[in-house]
Write a structure and sequence with these properties.
alpha+beta, D-amino Acid Aminotransferase, Chain A, domain 1, Dna Ligase, domain 1, 5-stranded antiparallel β-sheet, 10 helices
Length: 317
């Protein structure tokens, strides 16, 4: 059954789809923005346009008399509260999460601290600050590890390490992102992700997506190269685990004060214990992205997904 939603936004509204920016995920953002722009045209928003984010973005928004922003940016500056803060000051409504939740969820360590307080299950990890030696910090962890720069997306700078020798080499590479590095124990199991959407007063989880990759784990190549990942929709989980994952996803969304849309990534262990990995406040909207596929599996077309997200645009989140 197809999911339907009414537009709460005037069709004549001047909408800017923001893409690009000084981020390692700029190209992915452009691919998301192109699809979103096409959906807005299909939905009848004829005054929509794509605007590339540069240092003159505030000027560009003013000169184009933009009334609402669809934020299709990913990574730093677009997903970390920076662009959200500027739009708040300019009093331009925008899609997605607000300043606080965007900033918090962009940092994997801060996200984990909040989720821990909310009682949400997490994998054991430590934070190694920029320039700090890792040897003492990781003594309480067991190999293998995942190395994660705390404020990168799209698996950039992430490595799986199995031995101390690999750790030395990969940690240097991960640290080249210029950030603190999270060292997290690797849990063998199923990699899952589930979208969380708000439609009016209703908050709901999408179908759960399981991905089986041709690479060892869900890295950049697996995410953005056609044919490198097999998508299982819905995920092959028992009924109890499915319900549990969706409930935890909504709990994580609320704990991090998210708005409109987010995507929660999970690892489910071999004994069916779900662990939250991170919360993504600006999910990809490309042809290969997870959220559109998850939504489609429950009867939400791409255009309808864009409308749902657009309807929740607002200030002072």
């Amino acid at each position: 059954m197809e999911y339907t939603v009414e537009s709460k936004i005037d069709k004549n509204t001047k909408i800017a789809v923001l893409v690009g920016g000084p981020s390692s995920e700029a190209e992915v953002s452009r691919r998301s923005g192109k699809n979103v722009f096409k959906a807005l045209q299909n939905l009848g928003y004829k005054n929509a346009q794509i605007i590339e984010v540069t240092k003159d973005i505030a000027k560009d928004l003013r000169e184009n008399n933009i009334e609402l922003v669809y934020n299709a940016m990913h990574g730093r500056y677009g997903e970390d509260g920076c662009i959200q803060g500027m739009l708040e000051v300019m009093q331009i409504p925008y899609t997605g999460c607000g300043v606080m939740s965007s900033a918090v969820c962009m940092n994997k360590e801060y996200t984990k601290n909040i989720l821990k307080e909310a009682g949400i299950p997490l994998i054991k990890s430590v934070l190694v600050k920029k320039g700090e030696p890792y040897a003492e910090k990781i003594k309480g962890l067991k190999y293998p590890f995942m190395l994660k720069p705390v404020s990168e997306g799209s698996s950039i700078g992430m490595y799986k390490v199995n031995t101390p020798e690999e750790m030395e080499e990969c940690f240097k590479k991960s640290a080249q992102c210029g950030q603190d590095v999270m060292v997290e124990e690797y849990v063998q199991g199923k990699s899952l992700t589930v979208g969380v959407l708000e439609d009016g007063e209703k908050t709901f989880a999408t179908e759960i997506l399981e991905f089986r990759t041709k690479t060892e784990w869900y890295d950049y190549e697996a995410k953005y190269t056609a044919g490198m990942t097999e998508f299982i929709l819905p995920a092959e989980l028992n009924e109890e685990t499915t319900k549990k994952v969706k409930e935890i996803a909504i709990q994580a969304f609320r704990a991090c004060a998210c708005n409109g849309v987010s995507r929660v990534d999970f690892m489910v262990s071999q004994d069916n214990e779900p662990f939250v990995l991170e919360v993504n406040t600006s999910p990809g909207m490309t042809d290969l992205s997870d959220l559109p596929a998850q939504s489609k599996a429950m009867g939400i077309s791409y255009d309808t997904l864009v409308q749902i997200i657009l309807n929740k645009a607002g200030l002072n989140k």
